[in-house]
Amino acid sequence: MTLKEIAKLAGVSSATVSYVLNNSAPVSEKTRKNVLRIVHETGYTSNTIAKSLRTNKTNTIGLIAEDITFSHTAAIIDGINEFAQPHGYHIVLSNLRFLSKITSRFESIAEYKENISAAINVLLGMQVDGMIYIGMHERNLDPMVMPCAKPFVYCYCYTTNPEDVCVCYDNFAISYQITKKLIENGHKRIGLMTGNMNSAPSHQRMMGFQKALMDCSIPMDLDYIQNGEWLFEPSKKAALKLLSKKNPPTAIYAMNDVMALGVCRAANLLGRTVPANLSVVGFDNAECIRYICPRISTVHLPLREMGNVSAKILFAMIKGEHPAKNKLQLPCTFLERESIGLCEP
C-alpha cells in the first residue's frame, strides 16, 4: 500500500493522511479515526527511506560501543534511549567487541583504529543524523580519533581537541570528598589502593586524594599508597602489606569496589574488623558489594545521566546548535554506608 492508496480509500488527500500519521497539522477526529482504521486494516507502514530523502533526516542516531558487555555500557545506552525515544529518535548500535580483544590493555585499542573507522562508515551509509561513541574506560582517545561529517559526541572518554564534545564524570571532586570525609571522622593515616596509574581515572582520583590531604595539612605518606591493579587478589596482597606495618592506616580508600573487597578480606585475615578497626571506601557501586555486611561505602557513577546528556547535546547539534561547554564532567554521588567509622585520637 502507498500513501496515495490510503488517501483514496479514506476519501481524503495524501496531505491529510500525512498530517494524521505525523500528527503535524489539525485534522477532525472523525477523519483521523477513519485514516488510522484503514492504516491498521491494510497494514500500511510509511517508507522511512523515501521520507529521509525528502527531509534529509532519518531520525536515527548511531551508537558505537567499544563493548556492550562491559559493566557500565548498558546504563549509558539506557540513558541515551531515555532521551531519544520521547523525541522520536531510534538507535542503531555498532558493537566493536573490544573487551575480548584487549582485556584491560586499554592503550592497545589504538591498534583497532580501522574497526572504528569501519563502524563510522557503516553508520554514515545508513544516513544516521549523528553519532555517540561510548568508551569502556575514561581515557584520552587522541590516537584513534576519526573524522566524521556528522554531529559526534564522545561519552565516557575524551579528546584534547577543544572542538570535540565529550561527556565524562568528575573523578577529582568525588575523591576529594571521600578523603575529606575520612579526615573529618578522625583518620590521618589513610591508605590508598590505586588502579593502574597509567589510567586517567587513577591519576584524577589520586589528585583529589592528595589535594584533600594538603588542605587539611596532612602529609601524603607514599608508603600508604599501593597498586591493586583493579583486581581482588592483588589488592588483598597489597592490603596485607599495608595493614602489617608498624603504624598501619586506620582507613583505606580503594579506587574500585573489587579492590575494596580485597581490602576487607585482608583485614579479616589479620583479625581486623570493619569499621571498628579499619574504615573502607570503594568506588563504582558495583553489584558485588551490595549484599555483604557491613555494607561498603562507595561512589555511584552518573552513567545514565551521561548517556542522557550525550543524547541531549547530540540532538541540539543535529539542529545546528552547539553546546556552551564542550568538555562536561558530571558529578558523582558518595554513598556513605556502614564501612566508615570514627577514629579515636
Uncertain runs: none
User: Count the helices. How many?
Assistant: 12
Strands, total number? 12
Overall geometry: elongated
Structural class: alpha/beta
> How large is the radius of gyration?
26 Å
Give the integer mean of the pLDDT values. 91
**From N to C, what is the helix and strand string?**
HHHHEHEHHEEEHEHEHEHEEHEE
The largest beta-sheet arranges its strands as 2-1-3-4-5-11
Q: What does the largest sheet look like?
A: 6 strands, parallel
Straight-line distance between termini: 82 Å
Q: Can I get a quick summary?
A:
This protein has twelve helices and twelve strands. The strands form three sheets. It has a six-stranded parallel β-sheet with strand order 2-1-3-4-5-11, with helices on both faces. α1 crosses α2.
What descriptors fit this protein?
345 residues, alpha/beta, 15% strand
If you had to describe this structure to a student in words, what would you say it looks like?
The protein is of the alpha/beta class. Helices cover 40% and strands 15% of the residues. It has a six-stranded parallel β-sheet with strand order 2-1-3-4-5-11, sandwiched between helices. Helix 1 crosses helix 2, helix 5 crosses helix 12 and helix 10 packs across helix 11. It is elongated, with a radius of gyration of 26 Å. The model has no long low-confidence stretch (mean pLDDT 91).
List the helices and strands and how they pair.
Elements: H1 3-10, H2 14-22, H3 29-42, H4 48-55, E1 60-65, H5 73-84, E2 90-95, H6 99-102, H7 113-125, E3 130-134, E4 152-155, E5 165-169, H8 171-184, E6 190-194, H9 200-215, E7 225-227, H10 232-243, E8 251-254, H11 257-269, E9 279-281, E10 298-300, H12 303-318, E11 327-330, E12 333-335
Parallel strand pairs: 1-2, 1-3, 3-4, 4-5, 5-11, 6-7, 6-8, 8-9
Antiparallel strand pairs: 10-12
